[in-house]
Every structure is written in structure tokens, then in C-alpha cells.
């Protein structure tokens, strides 16, 4: 049984090759492909249903009407006598508008256009086909509502907002998921600035199994695209995040949970090492530990608001209540901070294990520093793949990785993608194609030989030289 | 270890990948007491492999060394004994994404060419139904899946997919066809697929096959029919030195203008000369020859 469209979902509208992600909310006006409508009537239908937009701006499931193609169509043999003077269509813009206003269906409008075209029956069959397709595309406003998936969202983002995803073309994304051996049960490190699209794709392929650590720049990870996927809540239980700004301290062993990047207003409780708590912190922690469940969850605003609020000095009771509210505010804030720090400490511990099953990177940043640092957290004999919109940074990255050692099977690649029109006697590649979809550098980690400085040079030489001879294998048991 | 789950150390009975260097690797079945010959010498399984961490460097008897890697479907694809025409990871990647495969998916295929990759993707809750025309190959496939610890995720049926279909109805999320006459199996594919939203993919080397398949898909009411092809371009990272041509001097005994390598102010500039008269730079050099065609991929949705 197909999944049904529910209120609160993120759904994707599709018309031909055009996609748009929208939240399914009642009485919310949606504009898509020069049409506006409400989604209310779509709720409850199965994903994949095709709708028509009624005059009132409502959606109505499209009835499958049989094409009237049984009549033998009159057609010409070539266009030698067809003059393109722009006058062959007898219906004017106003005529067509009148038809639309009358509520005449798109199919009927197309029929009218055909009947009122002086040159239609002189066109070849192929030209007639092309004409009908073109008019249908313009006047038959059908919209399909589809369930989001990596396929759909990656295609949508690449077409609509490629800048948000660093021009990561969908086939390149597909390669990353396979090169990275992303599958259920992994422990993956993801670093992306693609609005959360890569993260969503990874989560989809892991199906809620395993764990993901998302490294993020600045104050917090952007997960706009991730929410479009509509993953069930349990998927997020094993999704962790860690700030890039703490990576160096984690690697050098000086990590502490002092001042999180996202705490602008807080007075940071100064801590020593995360495993050595001061007495102060201990008591305040205890306090918050005891209280959380007994406190009634309140709609709490920023602490600044309370200071500017008018307090009637004569109303003592009111004042008392306000004080209580202040205290609760502060406690809740402390609790949230404590929660965040706890999570951060846990994630740091996960990273410190240095046993991640893979690393996948797609960001606007130069890839080299990211790779050199994040690879430290990956176990040996595991894949890594880094995307860059440009080739040159990956050349440098390749070189630096060779110098570092501990990686093999380095490969710099890109994929070439071409779409085809397939019709009887009219099959050929489509007229336009993407000029580039970005580049990938992939490889496999191995145990890092920190001892011998010679070996890295030897390794580099060995790995870079193509070895033309295959080895003799005598004992294959497979 | 298994193809669907990572393990840390090499165990007796594992399938491991021996990596010798650039584009040179092969699979081995790890077994107590066995040895494996390589061009760098002998690898003794009991002492060199079992108990070692995957990713370790192993020194062979002649002194050269290799790396032992954990198997993955991608490495397996590059190295497996070729029984049938196989699909490479580039095509497999886009097929996986376009068919929307993920853990829990039910997939049907008409050949074994990408079984490992599919099983890896749908594990642990999905299932692969693969139909093999050739009885011997079907048996070998079943054996291989058992050996690799994935037989609970796959069912191999020995029949002609064009005549008898996949052996299941209305449950598949996706169907993959990699057979000579896919148009003959479209009807069967449709009945194997779930009622709404199932995806189909057909892989064919010839455009004529594609044309017939697209027509069949249309006839059977499939929508969103799309055909594409994908090719992999690999670049070798190389440091290149180009010579500067001798254009002579403007006049006798002049220190010269322009790109003069003997001019001290040119030293240490980007593209620094290692020897007189050359410029060095790093380049991503394409291969001399590349794969120009594997097959056309046609995707569609059952509506």
C-alpha cells in the first residue's frame, strides 16, 4: 500500500521535469509553475497521484481520459510549403484566455489550438507529435505529488538551487554514496555544506541503523534539505554533531566543552578538562539533575526580555512570581546548556575512538585541511570520498595525502552524464547537458606507518607508478 | 566480517582483498595453514593474516609488502572471476540512487551482475530476488552468497525471467533488468512491482534494445520514462615539467625581457624552475583511453 500524503509532510510537486518541495499545510497558498492552489484536497491521497488545478485553486485527481487518436490523422511529408509567418494560429491570446476563464480543460484547449491551426495538417507526423507535446506542456496543467527521496531532492536542488549544494550534480552524489560504501550499521563521519542534502542521502542509505557524526562549521549544522526527506524520529537518535572549531583541540588532546560555538549570550561556566569538574559546576549540575522532571515546561523567552518587562513594584505577589519565573528560566537555560555539553562530550568520545567506517565530505571549504584532520578519526581499511566543485584543490589534496601516507587507491574522477530522447525513428541524445558535476577524490585508509620516513616515499612511488604486470596468483580460494 | 558489515580483524574463513599497488589487487579466502603466492613473495595465512587488523601492511617472503583490505562490493566488482558481463560501480551507483534503494527495499533482478552491491544496500531488512537462466550459474551464485554470509538476504530462482517472471508479485520496490530482451520481461516486471511507486531500470548496450524497451514500458503504463548514460572520467595526478622554448634575445648582450630563466627575479615565482628552462605544475591528466560506453540506462515508475 502506497504512503499517503499527510498534513505536516514535506512533499515534492512535480510537473514534467520541474520539482518543488513544499510543506503540506491546510489553507496555505502554493505557487508552482505559474499556478496557484491549495494542497488541502491532496491530503489523504497516495503519493504519486496526479492532480489538476481547478478554477477555485483546488486540487483534483486527474481522471485518465483516453486520447482520441483513433481518427486517422492527416499529415504532410515535409515542410517545403509551410511558411512560418506567425499567422497560422487563428486563436488569439484573448481567445485562449477566454477559454481558460470559462474553465475549459487543458486537453480541450490543445484540441482547439490544433483545429484552429492552418498548417497543422500539413506538418509531418513527427512535427504534429512535437506540436501537440509542446501545447500540452503549456496548457495541460497537471501536477504530480511525489514522496521525497535522494533521487528527487538531489535532482531538484541541482536544477533549482545548485549554489546551495556547491553544484554537486546528482550522479556525483550517487557515486559518493557507493564509493563511501554507505550502508546500514556504519559509523560515518559527514562534513557538508550542502544544506543537509548529503546528510539526508546518507541517512536514507543507512535506514536508521548505525551512527552518523556530522562535522559543522560555525554555530551549527544546516539541515534544511534533511527535513525534506521526512525521516522518522528514531533516525535522529544516532545522528551526532561536532563543531569543526573543536577538531584541533580534540586531536591534540586539549578538548574541553568550554563555550560552545552556539552560545553567544551565555556566561560560560568555566570548566577544566571535561573529565575534571569543579565543585561549583558539580553542585549546579546536581541541581539541574534533580529538577528537570519536576519543573513544568514553560514557554521561556530570552533573559533580556525579562529585564525590560514592566514590573509593578507595588504588586508583591506579581514580583514574587516573576522572580520564580526568572529562576526557572535560568535553570532551564542551564539545563539546556548542560544537555548540549553532555552531547558534545559524548560525540567527542565517539570521535576519539578513531574507528569510523568512512568519511564523506562535500563542502565549500578547501578539502585539504578537512581531509588531513578528519581522516585521523577513521579506522584503517575504510573508504573516504571528498567532493569539490573544482579540480585543482583536489590535486593539492591528493599530493598532501600521498605525503601523509596511510591511504591507498587514491582516485580523482568525475562522471559524465547524458540524457536521451528515445522515440521511434527519433532517438538521440538531448540537446543540452550539464557541463560539469564536480570532482571526487576517493581512497581507502590503511594502517599509518608513522615509524619509517623512507616508506612513505617508497609507498608514494609504488602507488603512483602504474604496474603493468599482474601478479601470479596460485592459491585463489574464491 | 562480511560484505554487509565491517569487521576489524582478519579471521579464518574471511574473504580478504590483497592490495599490491596501483590498480593491482585480488581476493583471497583466508584459511589456516594456507599460503598465497604474490610477486613479492609468499603470504602465510596463519601468521601473516589471521588476527591482524584489516588495513595492515604485510611483508611477504621476498621482502616486498602488500596491504590486506576488508572486502566491499566495489572491490569485489573490480576483482571477481568474470562469469557474466558485469556492471561497474559507476553504473551501479546511479542505478542504486535512481531506483531509490535503501535498507528494507525489495529488489528483483534478471541477472547476478550487481547482486553484492544490491544486497549491501538493502541489508539488513530488505531482500533480493534474482533470477538466473543458467542452472550451473544459479548454483554457483547460491554457493557464493552462502560463503559471503548473505544468503539470508537473497533468493536465487532458476528460470527464464522472460517466460516466467521473478517468482514474486506486487511486493518489489524495484526491478533491475540486465538481459538481452528486456522488453519481453516488462510485463513480468510490472506484476512483480508493488501497486504504486515501484521503480524499474533496464540496462542495454544497444539503442535498438532501448527503443523496444521504452515502447514496452509505455504500453504497460509506466511513467517518467527516462534514458541516460553515465561514464567515468579518471584523472592521474602528475607533476608536469614543460620546457621553455628558446626565443633568442631581443638584442645582443641584453639581459632580456619576458620569461628569462636566468633572471634572478624569476626564481621562487609560482611555477618555479627546478632546472633552467622549465616550468613545473601539478595536473590532473586524463587517461589515454577511457571507457566510452557501457550501456544505456532506462528508468521508469509504475503508477
UniProtKB/TrEMBL annotation, chain A:
Residues 263-274 have a biased composition (Acidic residues). Residues 70-86 have a biased composition (Basic and acidic residues). Residues 58-86, 255-306 are annotated as: Disordered. GO terms for cellular component: nucleus; tRNA (m1A) methyltransferase complex. Keywords: Coiled coil, Methyltransferase, Nucleus, Transferase, tRNA processing. Belongs to the TRM6/GCD10 family. The keyword Methyltransferase applies. It comes from the Eukaryota. GO terms for molecular function: methyltransferase activity. This is tRNA (adenine(58)-N(1))-methyltransferase non-catalytic subunit TRM6. PANTHER family: TRANSLATION INITIATION FACTOR EIF3-RELATED, TRNA (ADENINE(58)-N(1))-METHYLTRANSFERASE NON-CATALYTIC SUBUNIT TRM6. It is found in: Nucleus.
From TrEMBL, chain B:
Residues 254-276 have a biased composition (Polar residues). Its main location: nucleus. Keywords: Acetylation, Methyltransferase, Nucleus, S-adenosyl-L-methionine, Transferase, tRNA processing. S-adenosyl-L-methionine binds at residues 111-114, 132, 160, 178. Residues 253-276 are annotated as: Disordered. It is found in: Nucleus. GO terms for biological process: tRNA methylation. Its EC number is 2.1.1.220. Gene3D superfamilies: 3.10.330.20, Vaccinia Virus protein VP39 (3.40.50.150). It catalyses: an adenosine in mRNA + S-adenosyl-L-methionine = an N(1)-methyladenosine in mRNA + S-adenosyl-L-homocysteine + H(+). InterPro entries: SAM-dependent_MTases_sf, TRM61_C, tRNA_MeTrfase_Gcd14. GO terms for cellular component: nucleus; tRNA (m1A) methyltransferase complex. Catalytic subunit of tRNA (adenine-N(1)-)-methyltransferase, which catalyzes the formation of N(1)-methyladenine at position 58 (m1A58) in initiator methionyl-tRNA. Catalytic subunit of mRNA N(1)-methyltransferase complex, which mediates methylation of adenosine residues at the N(1) position of a small subset of mRNAs: N(1) methylation takes place in tRNA T-loop-like structures of mRNAs and is only present at low stoichiometries. This is tRNA (adenine(58)-N(1))-methyltransferase catalytic subunit TRMT61A. It comes from Manacus vitellinus (golden-collared manakin). The lineage of its organism: Eukaryota, Metazoa, Chordata, Craniata, Vertebrata.
Amino acid at each position: 500500500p502506497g504512503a499517503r500524503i499527510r498534513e505536516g509532510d514535506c512533499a515534492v510537486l512535480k510537473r514534467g521535469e520541474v520539482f518543488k518541495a513544499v510543506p503540506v499545510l491546510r489553507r496555505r497558498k502554493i505557487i508552482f509553475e505559474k499556478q496557484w492552489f491549495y494542497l488541502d484536497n491532496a491530503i489523504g491521497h497516495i503519493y504519486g497521484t496526479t492532480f489538476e488545478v481547478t478554477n477555485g485553486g483546488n486540487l483534483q485527481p486527474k481522471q485518465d481520459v483516453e486520447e482520441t487518436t483513433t481518427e486517422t490523422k492527416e499529415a504532410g511529408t515535409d515542410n517545403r510549403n509551410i511558411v512560418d509567418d506567425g499567422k497560422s494560429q487563428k486563436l488569439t491570446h484573448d481567445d485562449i484566455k477566454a477559454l481558460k476563464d470559462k474553465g475549459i480543460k487543458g486537453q480541450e484547449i490543445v484540441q482547439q489550438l490544433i483545429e484552429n491551426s492552418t498548417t497543422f495538417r500539413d506538418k509531418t507526423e513527427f512535427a504534429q507529435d512535437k506540436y501537440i507535446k509542446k501545447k500540452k506542456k503549456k496548457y495541460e496543467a497537471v501536477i504530480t505529488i511525489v514522496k521525497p527521496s535522494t533521487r528527487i531532492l538531489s535532482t531538484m536542488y541541482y536544477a533549482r538551487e545548485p549554489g546551495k549544494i556547491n553544484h554537486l550534480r546528482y550522479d556525483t552524489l550517487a557515486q559518493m554514496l557507493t564509493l563511501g560504501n554507505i550502508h546500514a550499521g556504519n559509523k560515518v563521519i559527514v562534513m557538508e555544506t550542502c544544506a543537509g542534502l548529503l546528510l539526508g542521502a546518507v541517512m536514507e542509505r543507512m535506514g536508521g541503523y548505525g551512527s552518523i557524526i556530522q562535522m559543522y562549521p560555525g554555530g551549527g549544522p544546516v539541515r534544511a534539505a534533511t527535513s525534506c526527506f521526512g525521516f522518522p524520529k528514531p533516525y535522529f537518535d544516532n545522528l551526532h554533531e561536532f563543531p569543526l572549531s573543536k577538531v584541533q583541540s580534540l586531536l591534540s588532546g586539549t578538548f574541553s566543552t568550554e563555550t560552545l560555538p552556539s552560545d553567544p549570550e551565555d556566561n560560560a561556566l568555566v570548566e577544566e578538562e571535561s573529565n575534571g569538574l569543579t565543585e561549583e559546576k558539580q553542585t549546579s549540575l546536581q541541581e539541574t539533575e534533580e529538577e528537570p522532571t519536576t519543573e513544568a515546561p514553560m514557554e521561556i523567552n530570552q533573559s533580556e526580555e525579562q529585564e525590560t518587562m514592566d514590573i509593578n513594584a507595588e504588586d508583591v505577589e506579581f514580583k514574587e512570581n516573576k522572580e520564580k519565573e526568572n529562576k526557572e528560566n535560568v535553570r532551564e537555560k542551564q539545563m539546556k546548556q548542560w544537555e548540549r555539553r553532555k552531547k558534545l562530550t559524548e560525540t567527542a568520545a565517539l570521535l576519539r575512538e578513531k574507528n569510523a567506517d568512512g568519511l564523506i565530505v562535500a563542502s565549500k571549504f578547501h578539502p585539504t585541511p578537512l581531509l588531513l584532520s578528519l581522516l585521523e578519526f577513521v579506522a584503517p581499511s575504510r573508504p573516504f570520498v571528498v567532493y569539490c566543485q573544482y579540480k585543482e584543490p583536489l590535486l593539492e589534496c591528493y599530493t598532501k595525502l600521498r605525503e601523509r601516507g596511510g591511504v591507498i587507491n587514491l582516485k580523482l574522477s568525475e562522471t559524465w552524464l547524458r540524457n536521451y530522447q528515445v522515440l521511434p525513428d527519433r532517438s538521440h541524445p538531448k540537446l543540452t547537458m550539464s557541463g560539469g558535476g564536480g570532482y571526487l577524490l576517493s581512497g581507502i585508509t590503511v594502517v599509518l606507518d608513522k615509524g619509517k620516513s623512507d616508506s612513505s616515499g617508497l609507498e608514494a612511488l609504488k602507488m603512483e607508478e602504474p604496474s603493468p604486470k599482474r601478479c601470479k596468483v596460485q592459491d585463489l580460494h574464491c | 566480517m562480511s560484505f554487509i558489515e565491517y569487521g576489524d580483524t582478519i579471521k579464518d574463513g574471511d574473504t580478504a582483498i590483497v592490495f599490491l599497488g596501483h590498480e593491482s589487487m585480488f581476493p583471497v579466502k583466508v584459511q589456516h595453514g594456507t599460503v598465497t603466492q604474490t610477486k613479492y613473495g609468499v603470504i602465510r595465512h596463519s601468521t601473516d593474516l589471521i588476527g591482524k587488523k584489516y588495513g595492515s601492511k604485510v611483508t611477504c617472503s621476498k621482502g616486498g609488502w602488500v596491504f590486506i583490505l576488508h572486502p566491499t562490493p566495489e572491490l569485489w566488482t573490480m576483482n571477481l572471476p568474470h562469469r557474466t558481463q558485469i556492471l561497474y560501480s559507476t553504473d551501479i551507483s546511479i542505478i542504486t540512487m535512481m531506483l531509490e534503494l535503501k535498507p528494507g527495499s525489495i529488489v528483483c533482478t534478471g541477472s547476478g551482475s550487481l547482486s553484492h552491491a544490491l544486497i549491501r544496500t538493502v541489508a539488513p531488512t530488505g531482500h533480493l530476488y534474482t533470477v538466473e537462466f543458467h542452472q550451473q550459474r544459479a548454483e554457483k551464485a547460491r554457493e557464493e552468497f552462502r560463503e559471503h554470509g548473505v544468503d539470508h538476504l537473497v533468493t536465487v530462482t532458476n528460470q527464464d525471467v522472460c517466460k516466467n517472471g521473478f517468482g514474486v508479485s506486487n511486493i518489489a520496490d524495484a526491478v533491475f533488468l540486465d538481459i538481452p530482451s528486456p522488453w519481453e520481461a516488462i510485463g513480468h516486471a510490472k506484476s512483480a512491482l508493488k501497486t504504486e511507486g515501484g521503480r524499474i531500470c533496464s540496462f542495454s548496450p544497444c539503442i535498438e534494445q532501448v527503443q523496444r524497451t521504452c515502447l514496452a514500458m509505455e504500453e504497460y503504463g509506466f511513467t517518467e520514462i527516462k534514458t541516460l548514460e553515465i561514464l567515468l572520467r579518471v584523472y592521474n595526478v602528475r607533476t608536469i615539467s614543460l620546457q621553455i622554448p628558446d626565443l633568442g634575445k631581443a638584442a645582443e648582450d641584453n639581459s632580456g625581457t619576458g620569461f628569462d630563466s636566468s633572471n634572478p627575479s624569476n626564481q621562487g615565482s609560482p611555477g618555479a624552475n627546478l632546472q633552467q628552462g622549465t616550468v613545473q605544475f601539478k595536473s590532473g591528466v586524463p587517461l589515454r583511453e577511457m571507457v566510452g560506453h557501457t550501456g544505456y540506462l532506462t528508468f521508469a515508475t509504475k503508477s
